Amino acid sequence: MLNTPAGVAHDDPILQLPKVSLHDHLDGGLRPATIIELAAQIGHELPATEPDALAQWFTDSANSGDLVRYLETFAHTTAVMQTREGLIRVAREWVLDQVADGVFYAEARWAPEQHLAGGLDLDEVVEAVQEGLEAGVAEAAAEGKLITVGQILTAMRQADNSMAIAELAIRHREKGADTGVVGFDIAGPENGFPPSAHLSAFNALHQAYVPLTIHAGEAAGKESIHEAVTVCHTQRIGHGARIVEDMDIVDGEGQLGSLAAWVLDQQIPLELCPSSNLQTDIGGTIASHPITGLKDLGFAVTINPDNRLMSGTSMTREMRLLVDEAGWTQTDLEWATVNAVTAAFLPLDVRERMLDEILIPGFARVTV
């Protein structure tokens, strides 16, 4: 049974639109009831033991306006993801929640190094997550729903393990497409931990043809994006909302700085996460969030939920907010979804089939 995403009307036509979720953290998308059950099994104390109350606690805690405090909420989700069984269950449910949201391609990003407390090693946690993802895909298929998923392995920028995680990504990607590892990321607190500190890992990944996305321009400013693009040569930018610091635009008129112009001209995809960004003090409101202005300027914007649990959100909710509060049209939603398919860490022929067979006909069947 697939559940309607939280905060979404069951009859909202946006639910029926085909979607792509590129910036979607596995440990930020657990079901509250699952956290409660798994926490009870391992004796982990939670701030609330009723699903609705726990969901509200996560949202309230994430609304602090501070990225560091926002990240502290993950202590409870990662705590219940330290066993093979816990990882499998969380990954399986993550897929089913994507399907319920109308998502046909999703990349689950997560940090394997944060899931070793139960005695598993890095390869074992990747294999457990993959087993869960595949179980979710199979269960969805049994209900007539098709979805493709991949893993993005994330290194924590405040730690010193990026090379080990890069080697892990290379190792599993080289096993073949069936392993599901499609790319690499760094995440965590930006200030004081620049992307260039992990250059050796990025160089190894480039040499092994593993795609990159880098969290940048979320808490730190344009200098973070500059390093991600010009030093580390990332294929995508995780968030990137603060690219607006390198432009002087009023009512669509003005001038772009060199960095913003490069990101625009090269069509480097921006994995924007409106609701999450408001929680970490970017944008003020959905209407004033940079995503709309960047869209109007032609940047390769994509729409993403970031952390479904912490933001109480989903792809459908993010799209509905943009329509209702920022004046987006169905054409705008389709354009951003085309950007996401184009930016997906998938072979070109697969992306082309998704556009022709899923995205374009799917949008034609729905009127928002």
Automatic annotation (TrEMBL):
Pfam families hit by this protein: A_deaminase
GO cellular component terms attached to this protein's record: cytosol
Domain Adenosine deaminase: 18-358
The keyword Hydrolase is annotated on this UniProt entry: yes
Record EC number: 3.5.4.4
Cofactor(s) for this UniProt protein: Zn(2+)
Gene3D superfamilies: Metal-dependent hydrolases
SUPFAM superfamilies assigned: Metallo-dependent hydrolases
Highest taxon, organism lineage: Bacteria
This protein's UniProt keywords: Hydrolase, Metal-binding, Nucleotide metabolism, Zinc
GO molecular function: adenosine deaminase activity; metal ion binding
GO biological process: adenosine catabolic process; hypoxanthine salvage; inosine biosynthetic process; nucleotide metabolic process
InterPro entries with a match to the protein in the record: A_deaminase_dom, Ado/ade_deaminase, Metal_Hydrolase
Similarity section: Belongs to the metallo-dependent hydrolases superfamily. Adenosine and AMP deaminases family.
Protein name: adenosine deaminase
Organism: Brevibacterium casei
